[in-house]
Amino acid sequence: MTVPVFRFAPSPNGHLHLGHAYSALLNYRSALATGGRFLFRVEDIDTVRCTPELERDMLEDLAWLGLTWEMPVLRQSENFSAYEDALQKLEGMGLTYRAYLTRAEIKRFVAERESAGASWPRDPDGAPHYPGDGAVLSDEERRRRVDADAPFAVRLDMRRALKRVREPVTWRECTAEMPSSPAGPEWFEARGIRADPAAWGDVTLARKDTPTSYHLSVVVDDAGQGVTDVLRGEDLYHATSVHRVLQMLLALPEPRYRHHRLILDDDGRKLAKSNRSTSVRDLRNSGVQIPDIQERLGISSTV
Ligand code: GLU
After folding, report:
1. What's the predicted TM-score (pTM) here?
2. Which numbered atom of ligand 1 lies nearest the CA of 235?
């Protein structure tokens, strides 16, 4: 019987807010309730916005909330070579290409299309699908950028990737709110979800100066750390389609998933890291106690 492995994997580009606290507590309590393990992973591939100070503050806030986690902590900024290996595998399979269009060029292309009355596909996050360099640049300009070693993104050729995968892409989504007792891995009741990776178009896997992306590093690390249960916010629900394709292409194990509700602010908006009224640190400094936070999150004070 495998021991469930849960993880909380924030990006330290701001302070821990109530949404993080909710996710961290659900993961921690699920690990406790199932006799599983709880890992903390630092998703700091953006080495400019993520700082050691913010990471230290996050760890401090989590410890204040009563959480403990296994050491050593995996820091993605120290694991770039693992992502490069995965990227090379995908490149070796002929499933990637270099994309030289800038964001502004993509935006302009799509705006022109749309103002001419044509629709252009957008991914579940609202970003337009990549049109392809050939749709925007002349052959000469494309050659010039390649020769000048201009900045590029490495994108997954989704159509080819799906041809390669062949079978329908699916995942198992847990339907239980939370394991309520030490029930072992059988606590998991799942519903099969049909993924829709084509809705994402050719996702970015890396950039010239960053050898990975969120999608690539998350699947590499979940597999590398033996994560069995990915319990995260429902804002990442659709991203699971991309993660499953990458797992299938890279022959990585399939974790179980559960996407929990998001904690919203008083106006019903998703919490932002810049919002001081929901930062755990600011609440703490203003004298708020852990039971107040549990009440605000709608979770019980005991596991
Ligand atoms: N690092 C991501 C975030 O902070 C979460 C990654 C995940 O749970 O898959 O939103």
Report:
1. 0.94
2. 10
